[in-house]
User: Fold Phosphoacetylglucosamine mutase from Dipodomys ordii.
Amino acid sequence: MDLDAITKHSALHAKPPGLTFHYGTAGFRMKAELLDHIMFRMGLLAALRSKQTNATIGVMVTASHNPEEDNGVKLVDPLGEMLAPTWEEHATRLANAEDGDVARVLVDIMEKEAVELPQDAFVVIGRDTRPSSENLGQSVREGVAAFGGQFHDYGLLTTPQLHYMVCCRNTGGRYGKATLDGYYHKLAAAFLELTKQASCSGDENVSVKVDCANGVGALKLKEMEPRFSPVLSVQLINDGTKGKLNHLCGADFVKSHQKPPQGLEMKPNERCCSFDGDADRIVYYYCDVDGAFHLIDGDKIAVLISSFLKELLLEVGEIFNIGVVQTAYANGSSTRYLEEVMKVPVHCTKTGVKHLHHKAQEFDIGVYFEANGHGTALFSKAVEVKIKQLAKLEDKKGKAAKMLENVIDLFNQTAGDAISDMLVIEAILALKGLTVQQWDALYSDLPNRQVKVKVADRRVISTTDAERQAVTPPGLQAAINNLVRKYRLSRAFVRPSGTEDVVRVYAEADSQESADSLAHEVSLAVFELAGGIGERPQLGFGR
Ligand SMILES: CC(=O)N[C@H]1[C@@H](OP(=O)(O)O)O[C@H](CO)[C@@H](O)[C@@H]1O
Ligand SMILES: [Mg+2]
Assistant:
C-alpha cells in the first residue's frame, strides 16, 4: 500500500467541510454532490475488507427509493450479506477523516483488524440509473485502484443482482454464475420448472403490470422477460423512458401513500406490482370493482410464501423449523394470522434488513419481510442438502421436494429482490390456483398510519423491545400508552429514522379515522416531549 499515493489521491476527492457522515441503515445516503469523497474512500475500504476476508467484496452505488438527486453507497460482504457492524464503524470513521488523515485512519483500521497486506483485493461494483451514479462509480474504482486492488465494474445492476454476484464469486460458482446471464438463467430455469407443475391457474393468461419506479429494475426485467414470457407476461410501466426516478411511483410511494403510482391505469381486479428504485422491494395491489384500492404489502407476501412453504414441507414429510421475521411496522393482523391461524412462530427485530436477515438465519427456513416489501426466504445448508436428496425420489414426496428445490433456487437468498420475489409470488399463485383477490382475502389489514415529526435532535429518542417501546425522553412512552388506551385494537410506537432526519410515528387501530387520530396525538406527544421544531403536527400532515 502506497500511503503517499493514497494521500495524494484523497486530495482529489476532497471532503466537503463542516459535515459529518454516518454509515446508517442503508449505508451512506445524501445529496449526490456531497458523496464523491465517500465513494473514493469506500473503494479504499472495500479493498481493505477484501484483503481481510480474502474474498470479493461488493460496492453498490444507489439511493434506492430516495429522490433522484440523492445517491448513496453500501458495501456487500462475502456471502452477499450486508457489511458487518464493526466495519460500519470503520466506514463512518473513514468517511469523516480530514483529507490528510485518510491514510492514517486506513492504517489504524488495518492494525485493529489484523489485515495482511500481501493478500489480493478484489471488488465488484454496481450502480443504479441515477445521473450521478456513473461518476460516483468512477470514484469508487479510483479508491480500489489507489489501494492496489482489482475490480470488476458490472455497470447498471439492481442491488440484489450485485449481492448475487458477490455470493457467486465467493462460493466457487455453487450459488450460480457471476454474470447477468447466470442470474437470469438460474431464476428463469427454476421458475419455468416450478410453473410446469401448475395444473390450474386462478387467473387465465397470467399477466402483471409492473411499475418499475423509472429505475434500474425496468432495464433488468426487460432483459430477462424473454426467458419467462411463455408463462408470465409483464407490462412495464414507469420504465424510465419518460418519468423521473421514484417520482410519484415505485414501491415506497405506493406503500406510504396507499394509492397507485402515476402512469398506471388499473382495470378492476387487474394484478399490479411496484418495484423501488433499485429493485430490492416489491408490493402488489389491485383495484376492486367499486374502485377501492387494495395494497398487498410485505406482510401479506410473507404470509403467502410461508404458508406455501409450510404446505410443501408437510408433503415432503420433513420436520424443519420455519419462522417468520418481521419488524414493528408489520400490520398487527398479519402477526395474528401467522401465529394463530398458520401456527408459525413470528419474531420481531429492529428496522433494517440486516437485522431481519440475521434473525432469519437462525431457522432451517426463515422468511423475512419488511412491511414495505423488502424480503426473501433463507434455507439452511442442511435443508438444501436434504431436499436435493429427496428430490431424486420418484414418488409424491419426491415431487414436492423437487418443487421445493426449485423454490430455493428461485429465491435470492442474499437480499430482498423484486424480480425474484415477483417470480416466486407468481409461481405460488399459479401452483395454488389463487387470484390476487383470494390472496388478499386471507386476512384484513388493520387500518394504519405512518407520519414523520421533525425534532431538533432525533437521537433524544432511544428505544427498546425491537423499537416498540421508547426509553427516552422520559414520559414519552407513558404518554403513548395513555393515548393507545383510548382506541380499539390499537398499537403505536415511535423511533428515530435511520435514513432521514425525522422521527417516525406508526399507529394502527380499528378504523382509519382512529389510526389517523392516534398517529396525530402521538405526533403531538413527540413534538412536545422530544424537542419538536417548526410547525406543530396537524392532522393529515407529515405523511
Ligand atoms: C418504516 C420504513 O419503511 N423504514 C425503512 C427506512 O428506514 P428508516 O430507518 O425508517 O428510515 O429505510 C430502510 C432502508 O431502505 C428500510 O430498511 C426501512 O424499512
Ligand atoms: Mg431499495
About this structure: DSSP finds 18 helices and 19 strands in the chain. The radius of gyration is 23 Å. Residues 323 and 358 are 12 Å apart (CA to CA).
